[in-house]
Design brief:
Chain lengths: 456, 339
């Protein structure tokens, strides 16, 4: 197939698949899948900027997603004034000591030549920093966590509309990426992967265990929503009228008034769910389009060409006077910021923040599959990869159960082999994912929608 | 009784820090050795290595069950030790099968290390599926035989101390087996012809090929050695604690940290790195309050727990060390190679 045709065909297939789910399962399911597909696509674009254009293997996608989620909580949750009153000063002082120690460390590290003096100073700073922070930090977090622990027990957030958090998440993720990049980007490619994998675990550990900040594994639920609630819709006049006018013929067919009213009630409940999901889909899709447009713009600019030049031949680019490290740092920050946005969107969609649910398989390696199978170096490919892989990830489970049923068809109901086969059906999706990745790498190493080689 | 206080403190520390860290360190060192050997010879970071560990352990468990069902046991030793050689054979064969069907293609293409690393992510997915499919995702204990060598209560009564020392038989087995494995590996690498040609191949591929070393043979030997090490490490870890696929997957991170901290590609570095990571995980999260209560006079006794980091961060410590090493000395403790 000609490469120009691949994108339209791929997206048509995807649309048909989603429509099949809509007809056979329900449109509500199909829309939930689409919403997560869009978020996955945004993450995939972030990773694609880093890998496809910058050649950087960031295995810390999970960490940036979690940072985005945390930002959503910190921006949208109401502040807990009592906690701030009683322990705000302690937390602020520990933060100041922390920042001062880090600044001092960096200063000592950079400016003092004599190794012995340097090492003694570093140890002194760390010891005194730790003692200082422990003096203020420990008691303060005890106070914060004791304030209404069943409901809050943390500092709360800023109480702003959650949609702002998407932007702020980009800033937070970008800042963290700057720190991480400073440390790791001078390393060779697979060191970078291992280091980012580790740092993302550190981020998760902090989010999980610093209860004063994020409530930890107690989760934060009931986050504010950027779209209307189902219950509000069901009670509002215009929505009832809308549902009635859409389903006019269906309602007309009903004979009695009471059965008509029952049908209308059912329809309103169903449609309110679908309406909310459509609102989310609209919001997410606009973000996706915006990010896609901006990254295309950036990548077709001289800056984008320089990035690709660096990716293809670092020595040549360096000889031309390009600062490889600075460019890598830039693209690392931009990609991570985009992943942060997607993380905040995910938490917004869920309406809750559950640090325990962040696992590297789901949030790092699946995203990588999306980029590689979709076509690294092509943002359109990443969007397709996001849709396709997420679709498979979700639909693999019912399909594998069906497959196992077929395999165990001839066996008795309580046959141990049949029970085992059905019980392990869920693991088949890992197998499908691995197989897809290996097949793609072997037979389609440039992905479904490959990068366009520009010739002049 | 000043002296007893001191001995009590030492016993306390041995019981909760030194003995556990020594056995965990030995397990980690073996696992890291296998990772670093793959890295040194085949030149890629194998993300599937932790899942090879669970595959090997799963094979051992299956053989253990088989032996137990036909009445073969190892007496006071765990049956798993009898099953281990058979499991190693199965694991090595499966490794070679995967190498033939997956990795060899990219080797012939002379793909970049990063591509092989991504390929290993695919293998990781498949192995996870296979292990969970065969044995399930749940926790399994497969230890049998004599559980303790030294029991805390006996120790206390015998020496008349306040603190007891427990040494589980698995801990002693771990240290002994790990020592045997390490010594034979280093003997193999330093003294035998095959080991020397392996090191030569790792050091400079082209030169090794010129001097008539058969690369296919080296690759096979590498996978076999890696299977021996990783299966042994997995079985020792599983005997000591328990086997659960997800826990094993999580060991990937300390393994990588140990490899880089020690100096990636260097076997000696892997051993050092394994112990460094294990000791720091345990020493940094242990609450030293009781230790200082024994040592210090009463008016100086500490009020807090005297814990550097909460146990919640046990897992993150290996990475904090990794980050520090990356900043201060990116080549690792023993200068490994940076290809």
């Amino acid at each position: 197939m000609s490469e120009d045709l691949r994108a339209p065909v791929a997206f048509t297939v995807m649309a048909v698949l989603l429509a099949i789910v809509g007809f056979t399962q329900s449109w509500s399911v199909s829309l939930s899948v689409i919403n997560l597909c869009i978020i996955s696509s945004i993450m995939a674009i972030g990773v694609n900027l880093q890998w496809g254009y910058g050649g950087l293997f960031n295995a810390g996608v999970m960490g940036f997603t979690a940072l985005g989620g945390l930002t959503a909580v910190l921006v949208s949750h109401d502040p807990i004034y009592e906690a701030w009153d009683k322990a705000g000063v302690g937390i602020a002082i520990s933060a100041i000591i922390f920042i001062l120690s880090i600044t001092a460390l960096v200063f000592v590290f950079r400016n003092i030549e004599n190794k012995q003096i340097r090492n003694t100073l570093i140890i002194l700073i760390i010891v005194f920093g730790l003692i200082g922070i422990n003096n203020f930090y420990g008691p303060s977090i005890d106070i914060i966590e004791s304030i209404n622990p069943a409901k809050t027990g943390f500092l709360g957030g800023l109480g702003l509309p959650i949609i702002f958090s998407w932007l702020i998440a980009a800033v937070v993720a970008g800042l963290v990426a700057w720190v991480i990049g400073k440390i790791t980007l001078r390393l060779r490619s697979d060191y970078l992967a291992i280091a980012t994998l580790g740092i993302s675990e550190i981020v998760i550990a902090v989010v999980k265990h610093e209860d004063w900040l994020s409530r930890g594994v107690k989760n934060v639920s009931g986050l504010d929503r950027p779209v209307p609630y189902e219950i509000e819709l069901q009670q509002s006049e215009w929505f009832l009228n809308l549902v009635e006018s859409i389903n006019f013929s269906k309602l007309e067919a009903m004979q009695s008034l009471s059965s008509r009213q029952d049908l209308l009630n059912d329809l309103v409940i169903d449609s309110s769910g679908i309406f909310v999901k459509l609102c989310y889909a609209g919001l997410f899709f606009s973000v996706l389009l915006l990010i896609f447009y901006l990254s295309q713009l950036a990548l077709n600019s001289p800056w984008g060409r320089m990035l690709r030049a660096i990716r293809d031949n670092e020595e040549a680019a360096s000889a031309m006077g390009k600062n490889i490290f600075a460019q890598h740092l830039q693209i690392f920050i931009i990609g991570s910021a985009i992943i942060g946005i997607a993380g905040a969107m995910l938490t917004t969609l869920d309406g809750q923040f559950t640090p325990g649910s962040y696992r590297p398989l789901r949030f790092t390696f699946i995203i990588w599959l999306m980029v590689i199978i979709g076509g690294s170096g092509n943002n359109l490919g990443s969007i397709f990869g996001g849709f396709f892989i997420w679709f498979i990830w979700i639909e693999a489970e019912p399909l594998s159960i069906g497959f196992m049923n077929m395999l165990a068809g001839g066996l008795e109901y309580d046959n141990p082999l049949r029970m085992h086969l059905l019980g392990s059906a869920a693991h088949l999706r890992l197998f499908i994912m691995g197989l897809l990745l290996l097949l793609a790498l072997r037979f389609m190493p440039r992905g479904v929608i490959p990068e366009k080689i520009q010739k002049k | 009784m000043e002296n007893f206080e001191f001995i009590n403190a030492i016993v306390l520390l041995s019981n909760f820090v030194i003995v556990p860290a020594l056995s965990y360190g030995s397990q980690l060192a073996l696992a890291t050795l296998s990772l670093t050997i793959i890295y040194g010879v085949l030149r890629f970071s194998n993300f599937a290595q932790a899942d090879w560990m669970s595959f090997g352990t799963m094979a051992t468990i299956l053989f253990t069950w088989l032996f137990q069902s036909i009445g073969i046991t190892a007496g006071i030793l765990p049956t798993a030790l009898l099953a281990l050689p058979f499991a190693i054979i199965v694991t090595a064969l499966f490794c070679l099968l995967i190498d033939r069907s997956v990795y060899s293609f990219y080797r012939k293409q002379k793909s970049q290390p990063i591509v092989l690393m991504i390929v290993s992510v695919g293998v990781m997915f498949i192995l996870q599926a296979v292990v969970r499919f065969i044995i399930g995702p749940n926790d399994r204990k497969f230890f049998d035989g004599e559980k303790y060598i030294v029991h805390a209560l006996d120790f206390k009564n015998y020496f008349g101390l306040e603190e007891g020392l427990t040494i589980k038989s698995t801990q002693l087995i771990t240290v002994i087996v790990a020592l045997i494995a390490m010594i034979s590996l280093f003997y193999f690498l330093q003294k035998t012809k095959l080991g020397k040609s392996m090191r030569a191949y790792s050091n400079n591929e082209d030169l090794a090929l010129l001097s008539g070393i058969n690369p296919e043979k080296i690759v096979i030997v590498t996978w076999v050695i890696s299977s021996i090490l990783i299966t042994t490490a997995g079985v020792l870890y599983g005997l000591d604690k328990s086997f659960k696929p997800f826990t094993y997957f999580n060991l990937l991170l300390p393994m990588f940290a140990a490899a880089i901290v020690g100096g990636i590609g260097s076997p000696v570095g892997a051993v050092i790195g394994g112990y460094v990571i294990a000791f720091s995980e345990i020493t940094l999260t242990y609450a030293y309050k009781k230790f200082f209560v024994y040592l210090l006079p009463e008016n100086l006794e500490p009020s807090g727990l005297m814990q550097v980091l909460s146990t919640d961060y046990k897992f993150a410590i290996s990475f904090i060390i990794l980050v520090i090493v990356l900043i201060v000395r990116p080549t690792g403790i023993v200068r490994g190679k940076i290809i």
